[in-house]
Specification:
It contains two helices and no strands. With 71 residues, it is mainly α. Helix 1 runs antiparallel to helix 2. The protein starts with 7 loop residues before the first helix and ends with a helix.
């Protein structure tokens, strides 16, 4: 395992994962919000499902990227 102080590239890779998680949640949350507006739903059910799918997608991406880096 490399020391992050000696290798700044690995630090940048790991710090960008946070922005990618936010991106996943923002995209899927926005799509859910638009679906709520389109179907004129009173409760934001599609927004909640969109955020849930965003979190699940972000976690899958995070696990895959971390296990790929450790190989």
């Amino acid at each position: 395992m490399t020391d992050p102080k000696k290798n700044p590239k690995s630090f940048l890779e790991y710090s960008s994962l946070g922005f990618q998680i936010i991106g996943f949640m923002a995209i899927f949350g926005y799509l859910g919000y638009r679906l709520d507006e389109y179907f004129a739903l009173r409760t934001p059910i599609m927004t909640m499902f969109g955020l849930l799918f965003g979190v699940i997608g972000a976690m899958i991406y995070l696990i895959r990227s971390l296990t790929k880096n450790n190989e």
